Amino acid sequence: MMLGSGLQGKASVDLEKLKEVARLVELLENDFSAKKLSSAEQVQTLLTLRQHGTDPTNADPIYSDKGINLLARYGLDGETVDIRRAALRCIANALLLNPNMRQVFVNTGYAGRVAEKLKTDSSDDEMIMSRILFLTTYGTDIEFSTLITKHSLADNVCYQVTRHAKQFPKGGQKDLPQMDELALTDTLKLVFNVAKLYPSLADSFAPLIPHIFKIISRIDIPAKPLDGLIGYLVNALSTLDLEEKPGKFESSPLFPKFNQNCNVDKLINILDAAVRVYTPDELEPRVVPLLHLLITIHEFAPEGPRKYMKWLLLPEDNDRSAPIGRSDTLSSKLLNLSTSPSVHLKTTISELMFALSDKDPENLTKNIGFGFAAGFLASRGIEIPQDSQEAFATNTEAGINPITGQRFDAEPQDLGPPMSQEEKEREAEKLFVLFERARANGFITAENPVAQAVREGRFEELPDDADSDLD
Q1: Residue 400 φ/ψ, nearest 5 degrees
Q2: Which residues share a beta bridge with 400?
Q3: Is residue 214 situated within a structural domain?
Q4: Could you give the angle at which helices 280-300 and 229-238 cross, rounded to 10 degrees?
Q5: pLDDT at position 6
Q6: Which Gene Ontology cellular component annotation is one that this UniProt entry carries (predicted)?
Q7: DSSP of 137-159, one letter per residue?
Q8: Rounded to an integer, what distance in angstroms lies between the CA atom of residue 23 and that of residue 250?
Q9: What pLDDT score was predicted for residue 369?
Q10: Does a structural domain hold residue 285?
């Protein structure tokens, strides 16, 4: 009986919530024309309704055509800012918690007015408007092209990004107040989704590019570099066309005249910070857009920034004091990550190294060593050219091990007892087999050095009774 009473009590409480939500919706419905509630009472009613809506269970009157339509009317036509804001927060909450309500909201026809009201100097309102529009990018038939051409969506998004960029004066603050950051984050998420889902509309957001780079160049890099605003700025850029076509920009936003390398430098500093704090699994969803962005920038970069990127991202002479990938430099960390199980991460890192090598297999092999280059080239179906031995010869003549990328003079010396002749023969046989496999796969075309030694009489077969312990 006690258990039954408890269940009956719970059902009664749920029924009470349902009745209360229905009462509040009815009260707001009647008052929209009767105007009996004061502004403060309307706000309080909407806030109470929103609180009930944080759990959709037994809040059906909110999660309905009637409920969403009513909230949209208050959100766009309410008499005060507080009324409109409270109603729109109810809508944003409903769209987040019940995906079915997104199409219901689109059906109200109010999305265009939300896009128009995105032109505001209030970050509170920017955040709500951007969040509602962002949520409608999922599972609806909303026409973003109409929002852009008839309701100034792209212009108003640009207004917001420009407004926030002005909050980063040269030599001034290096971050945003929390509400401004939340608002800009939602706006950037909206840009990313629209440009990603509707590539034909991405050009509408091109005016954002200089302002996004301005923010990136001046913002501080946080402890978790890509978890906050920087990550959303990079994501938004990764969906936009960065090519500087004639008349597109007044001056180059990617490579400004006052310092062509400033944006490249900041993005690589962000990358360097990221690879030092995230695990490979954490890196994949965060850093791949940044890597793609660097690949794109390198593609459009003039000679100076290209050389600068190669200097910062490819192994230097100092890296070659050990096999490439063993030092603490950014290039070594990237190459190590290129062998991780994270498919998108390792592929994108290899693509970056290939781009930095001017998409030349021989340059790639020379820059990062055959060990790192071979897998990427094989996965892309790229054969080493017939004259690939030149890359090996060039590295070897320069005193660099073509497989590991390490300088020969820095390789550890074997201080142990000398190998027996039998051990030498076994090692030579291993090398012969490995070399022949590489030749069969098309990675190299040079003659097998073991076969060459035999042909030239530099490899002597011992008689069967030779002492295997002799050198």
Answers
A1: -120, 130
A2: 407
A3: no
A4: 50
A5: 43
A6: cytoplasm
A7: TSS----HHHHHHHH-HHHHHHH
A8: 57
A9: 78
A10: no
Domain of residue 452 covers 423-471
Residue 232 lies in a domain: no
Structure tokens at 223: 């402890």
The residues with which 407 forms a beta bridge, in sequence order, are: 400
pLDDT for 338: 85
State the pLDDT confidence band at 5, using cuts at 50, 70 and 90.
very low
Average pLDDT over residues 280-293: 93
Listed residue (182, 195, 285, 179) closest to 241, CA to CA = 195
Residue type, 108: T
| DSSP-assigned states of every residue in 300-340 | H--HHHHHHHHHHHS--GGGGGSSTT-SSSHHHHHHHHTTS
pLDDT given for residue 160 in this prediction: 97
What's the domain count of the chain?
1
Place of tokens 């039954």: 4
Q: Report the range of poorest mean pLDDT among 80-94, 163-177, 256-270.
A: 163-177
Q: Tell me if 235 is assigned to some domain.
A: no
Q: How sure is the predictor about 21, in pLDDT bands with cuts at 50, 70 and 90?
A: very high
- The DSSP output letter for 199 is G
More confident residue, 369 or 194: 194
